[in-house]
Design brief:
Elements (H helix, E strand, L loop, with lengths): L1 E4 L3 H16 L5 E4 L3 H4 L13 H11 L5 E5 L11 E6 L7 E4 L9 E3 L3 H10 L4 E3 L5 H9 L5 E5 H6 L6 E4 L13 E6 L2 H8 L4 H17 L7 E6 L2 E7 L6 E7 L3 H26 L6
Parallel strand pairs: 1-2, 1-3, 6-7, 6-8
Antiparallel strand pairs: 3-10, 4-10, 5-8, 5-9, 11-12, 12-13
Length: 294
């Protein structure tokens, strides 16, 4: 199996984890590095170059044209709409879903925080009085370097990414029940061609409970819409679901919380959340200059 991945240290670490698991099941995978638009265009917000999907599109194309057989992704980067001919062959057991605020100064002294995520920005502005949030893009090493240079007082990273890179950094874990994460944060997915032999190889890596939670989160996400542009968090832990939509400045929030058993119930939950947060979603699209796909 030829496994495609982005070339960042984190992406390669994730691909190597999948390759190692496949070796334990008797396969001999080859890792192939693919460059995406999200890797080559830096210094601008993701919504200006196509959203999180820019990290996935090149790998999807490489699977469909036969350059690779499968690709490893952070599941949260995978858009709701997927090309025909692909399937999510495996979802690994979830790592931490939480965000991590990296900082060396006292928490109460933090004033400037770096992140590009509209969700993280809105949550930080809502829960941390007196802070300002500045744009920050780049891989984990780049972000940590900019923090060390003093460009920011703190930066936000996914705790799962730090764990996968075996990085120990000072800071504060942000509770996923308060700072509700992006849907599927902390999960690694293996996308492959919709081919029986590839599906069988991938299936040995699948974690049942994580897949259930992921499918619930994605069902809510698909009903809510808004892509990565609207500040929204969706988190399911063993069927207990928290969903929220925030204004871009964090001053307003719609939140729902419920125990759900299936993606069907999650879609009802998502439609309710969308209806309650319709004004915030429309406002985010208008302010960011994006056409709402509905």
């Amino acid at each position: 199996m030829r496994i495609g991945t982005r070339g960042s240290r984190l992406a390669l670490a994730q691909a190597e984890r999948v390759a190692s698991l496949l070796r334990q099941h008797g396969s001999e995978p080859e890792i192939v590095t693919i460059t995406t638009k999200g890797d080559t265009v830096d210094g601008v917000p993701l919504h200006e170059i196509g959203g999180q999907g820019v990290f996935v599109r090149a790998l999807d194309d490489a699977i469909l044209d036969g350059t690779i057989d499968a690709a490893v992704h952070s599941m949260k980067d995978i858009p709701a709409k997927r090309p025909a001919g692909l399937c999510t062959g495996a979802i690994l057991m979830r790592d931490s879903p939480a965000d991590f605020l990296v900082h060396t100064m006292p928490f109460d002294s933090i004033r400037v925080i770096g992140t590009t995520s509209t969700r993280r920005r809105a949550q930080l502005l809502r829960y941390m009085e007196g802070v300002s949030v500045k744009q920050l893009r780049g891989n984990v090493d780049t972000r940590l370097r900019k923090l060390a240079e003093g460009q920011y007082d703190a930066i936000v990273l996914a705790e799962a990414g730090l764990q996968r890179l075996d990085l120990s950094v000072p800071g504060t874990r942000l509770s996923p029940l308060r700072f509700v994460p992006s849907p599927n944060q902390g999960t690694i997915a293996v996308v492959c061609r919709d081919d029986p032999s590839l599906r069988t190889m991938c299936a040995s890596l699948d974690h049942e409970q994580t897949r259930i939670d992921v499918e619930i989160e994605r069902a809510v996400m698909e009903e809510v819409g808004g892509g990565c542009f609207t500040p929204q968090g969706i988190y399911s832990h063993q069927g207990h679901v928290v969903g929220e939509i925030l204004s871009l400045d964090g001053t307003r929030k719609i939140r729902r919380e419920e125990d759900l058993c299936s993606p069907k119930e999650a879609r009802v939950f998502g439609r309710d959340l969308r209806g309650a947060g319709e004004e915030l979603i429309r406002e985010a699209y208008e302010r960011l200059g994006i056409c709402d796909e509905g």
